[in-house]
Input
Amino acid sequence: MFLKVFKYDFKAIFFKFIPMLIILPVLAVLVRLFNLVSFQNVFLSLIMGLVNGVFVLGCIVAIIYNIVICIMRYVKSLFRDQGYLTHTLPLNKHQLLLSQILADVLMSLITFLLIFLCLIIAYFSPFIIPDLIEMFNQIYETIISEEEVAKNLPITLVLTFFTCIASSLMGLFVIYLGVAIGHAFAKNKGILSVVFCIGLNYAINFVFGFMNIIFAMSYDPAVVDISTSFYIINMFLSITLIESIVICIGGYFAVIYIMKHKLNLE
Output
């Protein structure tokens, strides 16, 4: 039953995203065609610049549109009229929320993959491959020539990867929690959801900023060497990763609590 609900949630989001799946590749192909031709005419050059601008704007809109449709689906499925049906399904609250999370994450991955492929279609040239290989070889040689860099950089890259994922999920859970709190009230649910989302975001950024300042003040920049620099960066990433995970877990269980005890469907 869980897989059926997940498929239903994902299809509901995916079908709304289909226009972007058509428009963005078309814009990418147009950009590619215009960039293959050197225009001497000023008017055609302006059109080429306009097409490039529209394509870049389309990539930004695709990200925003994905966020909007995921939030709308989350609200409609769990907190509005459709919630009367959703909450009668033979699934517990954890499964209902996990279905929504997985659908949103999968749609976000598709969105970024689409943008990545469209950027390759629009701007990638096989002639730059030798330059890229040479650049990566130089970077690799520089890394292995420095013992401290070779020892600490892989850890830093791994921490950066997981911190980016955790931070993205944290942003998702902050929105989830803000919407859930807003819809726990009887009136003005939409406005309150926005207020709580913004308030939670500012509160978390304030706490993160305060802790980062305290962490930065504990080191003297005048005596920081390469090894110490990597240690500071890795500690900063580790703290941010732990904070993001804690907020994700706290946000998840807070939403579950609201769904169980404070649910107030429209």
Notes: Residues 135-266 form one domain. The mean pLDDT is 84. The chain is about 85% helix and 0% strand.
